[in-house]
Design goal:
Bound molecules: 3-methyl-2-oxobutanoic acid, zinc ion
Structural class: alpha/beta
Strand content: 15-25%
Radius of gyration: 24 Å
Strand order of the largest sheet: 1-2-3-4-5-6-7-8
CATH class of the largest domain: Alpha Beta
Number of strands: 14
Oligomer: single chain
Distance between the termini: 41 Å
Shape: globular
Number of helices: 18
């Protein structure tokens, strides 16, 4: 590998990804994801937006202290207090970076009401300030792909002269296309004095489904840092997916001879964990990490794959850490087998957690003859999402349904106190949700209710995802059970728990975060 073809992977799951409505993670979850990113070889972790809240500041500082290999980066608007706060958080890292940005397109310039000269002056002042604090400074002209080329060249030159070491070119609204993405990087490299001395980064959003293609085109034109998130998490249609660009560079190295240092066998494990903690299920046909990405359903495909795997497979499941043997534990399997299987699936469980998971596994194996990998993943997701320390817990549920009407008798633990109600509804799920509402009155509105079968057969577990909204705050809940109605209630209660936690987080408000991003 030469420096010339090395591509730096900048992961922003914990910043841009977490900005996605409903994807807010707890402090402990952020630390865990950061550790996984560090271990898989991510070069730069954007750990948060320290001025946004006390919670963001605490997470970025802690991640900076714990980081082993990755550069730890925090985001700051083009304001001196933002940059100071960012530095206070990242300075603990072995390798800190300040990332400061301002919107440079005509639409974004109108927000702080600065003319071109005033904005140029602000960029000079803020990048100089950041560079006086930290040797490693990244600057982004937000909405670069809709900024006038002459002005873009002018402000990029100012940022480089002021000391920026990486210039990121965001396609903030997912508007560009591959040829244009490449031409923009090429134009900057040709026209901006000093451009050869810094790294150009590409940061694409996926509104037109072109984020991966746009990022790769930018690399072919000379960009050497790709900004991305696990599972493509991010606002609206999300960001470039880390797993897609990394695997594209690996599988098509023949035509894109660029190298990353990502350990691709860790992709599946972190994809599952990010899906769990964000509450954003991965779509079944998602490239690389979707449940169907390596399934060969049709007869012709199966026949071909059995004769020669390369007939229909361009990469091996093991390359992304997916075990080919989807084999099966049963009710006689012991703790050691369970632990080893969980390790294969990317979960490292301590003794206490194993005890708890084993009890749940046995209960599942009693109800279901064969427990597949996907069942275990669902079980792990369920045990992470719904715990004995939750404020609201489902203790007992009895549902009556059928042609004579539907009702639910529900017992819940609310802050340690047991409460039981009887409720009716239009269908069993409605009756159950009414029962929860009778026990825990709330104004949260159900935005999404989704059920998926984890495996095949009528004894399959169902995973249920629920999204709730309350006064602009959004929270997701997930649960799995062979009883679809019970899983529905647990997911609903899980979302209510998350809303409660979010209400209580002092100064923590994802929606305030989005507003403040644009106020310069
Ligand atoms: O999409 C964007 O423009 C951003 C910037 C803050 C880099 O996320
Ligand atoms: Zn972005």
């Amino acid at each position: 590998m030469t420096d010339k073809n090395r591509v730096w992977i900048f992961d922003t799951t914990l910043r841009d990804g977490e900005q996605s409505p409903g994807a807010t993670m707890t402090h402990a979850e952020k630390l865990e994801i950061a550790q996984m990113l560090d271990e898989m070889g991510v070069d730069i972790i954007e750990a948060g937006f320290p001025i946004a809240s006390e919670g963001d500041f605490a997470a970025v500082s802690e991640i900076a202290k714990l980081s082993k290999n990755s550069v730890i980066c925090g985001l700051a608007r083009a304001q001196l207090p933002d940059i100071d706060r960012c530095w206070e958080a990242v300075k603990h890292a072995r390798q800190p970076r300040i990332h400061t940005f301002i919107g440079t397109s005509p639409l974004h310039r109108a927000i702080p009401n600065l003319d071109m000269d005033q904005m140029a002056e602000r960029i000079h002042q803020t990048v100089t300030h950041a560079r006086n604090l930290c040797d490693n400074v990244q600057w982004s002209p937000m909405d670069a792909t809709r900024t006038e080329h002459d002005y873009l060249c002018r402000v990029v030159e100012i940022a480089i002269k002021a000391g920026a070491t990486t210039i990121n070119i965001p396609d903030t609204v997912g508007y560009t296309a591959p040829r244009e993405s490449a031409a923009l990087i090429k134009m900057l490299l040709e026209r901006v004095p000093g451009a050869d001395d810094i790294i150009f980064a590409t940061h694409c959003h996926n509104d037109l489904g072109m984020a991966t293609a746009n990022s790769l085109a930018a690399v072919e034109a000379g960009a050497r840092q790709i900004e991305c998130t696990i599972n493509g998490l991010g606002e609206r249609a999300g960001n470039t997916a880390l797993e897609e660009v990394v695997m594209a560079l690996k599988v098509r190295h023949d035509i894109m001879p660029y190298d990353t240092q990502i350990d691709t066998t860790k992709i599946m494990g972190i994809s599952r964990r990010v899906s769990q903690v964000s509450g954003f299920a991965v779509q079944f046909n998602k490239a690389i990490v979707g449940k169907n990405a390596f399934l060969h359903e049709s007869g012709i495909h199966q026949d071909g794959v059995l004769k020669n795997v390369e007939t229909f497979e361009i990469m091996r499941p093991a390359d992304i850490g997916l075990n080919e043997a989807n084999i099966v534990l049963g009710k006689h399997s012991g703790r050691a087998a369970l632990r080893s299987k969980l390790n294969d699936l990317g979960y490292e469980v301590g003794d206490n957690q194993l005890k708890d998971v084993f009890v749940r596994f046995k209960a599942l194996a009693d109800r279901k003859k064969e427990v597949y990998d996907d069942d275990l993943v669902a079980l792990m997701q369920d045990s992470a999402a719904n715990t004995d320390s939750d404020y609201l817990q489902v203790k007992h549920l009895r549902v009556v349904c059928g042609s004579d009407g539907q009702s639910a008798d529900l017992t819940m633990i609310v802050g340690g106190e047991e409460k039981t109600v009887h409720a009716e509804g239009d269908g069993p799920v409605d009756a159950c949700f009414n029962a929860v509402k009778a026990i825990w009155p709330h104004h949260a509105v159900l935005q999404l209710y989704q059920v998926h079968a984890v495996t095949e057969g009528t004894d399959a577990q169902a995973t249920v995802s629920v999204r709730m909204e309350e006064e602009g705050r959004i929270a997701n809940g997930q649960a799995a059970d062979t009883d679809t109605i019970l899983a529905s209630v647990k997911a609903y209660v899980g979302a209510l728990n998350r809303l409660k936690v979010r209400r209580e987080m002092v100064g923590e408000n994802a929606d305030a975060k989005q507003v403040s991003m644009y106020s310069h």
